[in-house]
Amino acid sequence: MPRCCVQCFHDSVIVAKINAEGEISRCSYCGTNQVSCIDPADLADKLELFTYGLREDENGHSFSEILKSYGVLSKRVRQTDILVNDIFGDSIANRLFLFDFDVASYADEWEDFKLELKHKNRFFPKATIYSSLFRRLTPGSNEGVLFQLLEQLKIPVDMKESFFRARISEKHLDARQMGCPPREIVTGGRANPLGIPYLYAADSLITCISEVRPSNSSGVYVAQMTPVHELSVLDLTTPREHCSASAFGEEQLSAVLGFLGLLELFSNELSKPIRPENSNLDYIPTQFLCEFIKSEAKFDGIVFNSSFGQGKNYVFFDGDSLAPAAPIKYIVNKTVHEYEQV
Q1: What are the CA-CA distances from residue 53 to residues 101, 204, 231, 255 (Å)?
Q2: Which pLDDT tens digit goes with each residue over 244-300?
Q3: What gap in Å lies between CA 265 and CA 106, rounded to an integer?
């Protein structure tokens, strides 16, 4: 009998069901050995939730693609259509669906909001997304769903963890000079507005050095940073995979899918490279986003993918929440540039 495993799914509710009711075996769909597995038909009651708001249409998508859009299925699954058909039986095979709701509405509103922040109204924006999502006390809004998703993306940072922070300098630097710059001289960055210092760090030595964009022969000082107390950060590396859509009710699924798309947009905005000459304007939307995460969602920082390789970047809103060790100086021997014709 075929069995699916915890590695086939991202959704934490479904993973919990497999762990609770399954038994150790080999997965028939991703090939993982010695892992908790279950009869795929036993998951039909959990996954049936995602049929809400669908209508059959010859120009639509398979149900396996629908589940991927919710971040339910893992990329480990070799043939997702086969797994989905084994969960639901032949009733789902060869049928195509469209959503009865606009899955891109929040993404479109975010693009309009970015333009308003950069070119029209910076401090008193009038865009719909501002009043409906980013103002927590708005009656009748979907903000409850958004804040629940943010809570699912919360990860703790323990005092035993460490991060890396780099500064380019030809002069000797000590530990006291590896924290945030003074607010009087701090420039605007990807996360922080002008005059408001945040602490930028990375999860690895190579990522933190790459992020300061050194040239050949640059001297780079790197210090390890450790939290002085436990912190909580918002993980925006892969929001669609780390959120559990099945934790919501049917009537909330349209908002969930819209917010998942919006959170992925936020993740991409934070990670994409920006030319220095454009940064003053292009950083304004991500600065607004970080202010919202700090002040309204009450996180101590964020983590997002670096545009350099596989590493992760961390931004901590209070620089005093981490203590730097004595920095080590490195000399950059070689930088590598990748390019493409456009």
Answers
A1: 7, 43, 38, 11
A2: 999 999 989 999 999 999 999 999 999 887 777 677 899 999 999 999 999 999 999
A3: 10
List, in sequence order, every residue forming a beta bridge with 233; answer none if it has no partner.
155, 301
Tokens of 155: 């990860």
- What is the extent of the structural domain holding 283? 153-342
Considering only CA atoms, which of 243, 301, 300, 304 is closest in space to residue 272? Answer: 304
Report residue 264 CA to chain centroid gap.
6
In a domain, 253, yes or no: yes
Contact at 8 Å (CB) between 316 and 231? yes
Q: What is the pLDDT of residue 139?
A: 47
How far apart CA 220 and CA 218 sit, in angstroms, is 6
CA–CA separation, 117 vs 101, rounded Å?
27
Q: Which residues contact 69 (CB under 8 A, 6 or more apart)?
A: 61, 103, 257, 260
CA distance 220 to 173: 10
> What's the structural domain count of the chain?
2
Same domain, 94 and 240: no
Strands 154-157 and 163-168: unpaired
Is the model's pLDDT at 61 over the cut of 70? yes
